[in-house]
Amino acid sequence: MQADIARVLISQDRIARRVKELAAQITADYAKRDSHGSGITIVPVMTGALVFCGDLMRQMPIAMKIGLILVSSYPGASVKAQDTQVLSQRLGDLRGRTVLLIDDILDSGGTIKRVVPILKDLGAATVRTCVLLRKDREAAKSVAVDYVGFDIADEFVVGYGLDFNDYYRNLPDIVTLTAEAMEQAAGSESRSSP
Ligand code: IMP
Ligand code: MG
User: Fold this and answer.
1) Which of 18, 76, 174, 182 is most buried, most CB within 10 Å of its CB?
2) pLDDT tens, residue by residue, 132-160
3) pLDDT for res 185
4) Dist. CA 193 → ligand 2 center (Å)
5) Coil, helix or strand at residue 40
6) Which CATH code of 3.40.50.150, 3.40.50.2020, 3.40.50.970, 3.10.50.40 fits the domain covering 12-153?
7) Rounded to 10 degrees, what is the CA torsion of 12, 14, 17, 22?
């Protein structure tokens, strides 16, 4: 896998430092604004937000439930967002809850725009949004989110939960891939990658 990496964009150390800052900020905001005590429901968009959410939540010492939503926007070996589809959800009772929606990356904005209304329709009192990465493109910038880890260039990245054709989620750093690696991963058998 190491040979597939073209460039390390954000190292695991930098990610860890930023995740710690984000967790502190989210926790402080929560204490300021929602201190009525029932805690939050954290909702990672599966599968890309799995790793980020796992690290973030363990640094948030507040009462917390987890809801899951599985969304597909980059089916298989594509590097452009297609129509966002909700494949399944297990969100629990969101009525009156403070919800924190977590995604790995804000790109076309389709995922956030699709999922936030679902959470509100289920009765969430407040929905806040947190993305680890935000791409430097108009569509991403035009969607309001509450917390952003890193602003990055408009290029395709993998690692720390982000995939290409469902591979590379387990890389600890956020990286770009070589053209050869992308060709190979695109050709290998895989189901669509939410
Ligand atoms: P959006 O709905 O277009 O904002 O894109 C969000 C989803 O697309 C993310 O949750 C990712 O799963 C996927 N995505 C967007 N950009 C990338 C990328 O550079 N690498 C891997 N996945 C990406
Ligand atoms: Mg995703």
Assistant:
1) 174
2) 999 999 999 999 999 999 999 999 999 99
3) 87
4) 8
5) strand
6) 3.40.50.2020
7) -100
pLDDT digits (tens, 9 = 90+) for 46-78: 999 999 999 999 999 999 999 999 998 766 677
Q: Is there a contact between 168 and 158 (Cβ–Cβ < 8 Å)?
A: yes
Could you identify the atom of ligand 1 that is nearest to the CA of residue 106?
A: 4
173 lines ligand 1 (CB under 6 A): no
Q: Which of 4, 104, 107, 163 is catalytic?
A: 107
By the CB criterion, residues less than 5 angstroms from ion ligand 2 are 48
Could you identify the atom of ligand 1 that is nearest to the CA of residue 105? 9
- Distance of CA 110 to CAs 8, 27, 59, 139, Å? 27, 27, 28, 9
Q: Work out the pLDDT band at 191, boundaries 50, 70, 90.
A: very low
